[in-house]
Amino acid sequence: MPNDSSVTRFTGATHYVLDDELAQIVNISMALEMPLLLKGEPGTGKTMLAHAIAESLNMRLIVLNVKSSMKLVEALYQYDTLTRLNDSRFGDSTRDVSNIEEYIKMGKIGQSFVSDERVVLLIDEIDKADTDFQDDMLDVLDQMEFDIIEIDKTIKAKNRPVIIITSNAKKDLSDPFLGRCNFHHIAFPEPDMMRQIVRVHFSNIDKDLLDNAVSTFYRLRDLRGLEKKPATRELINWIRALRSDPDFKVKDLVKGDTPYLGVLFKKSPDYVVAQNSVARFRR
Question: Would the pTM count as exceeding 0.70?
Answer without folding.
Answer: yes
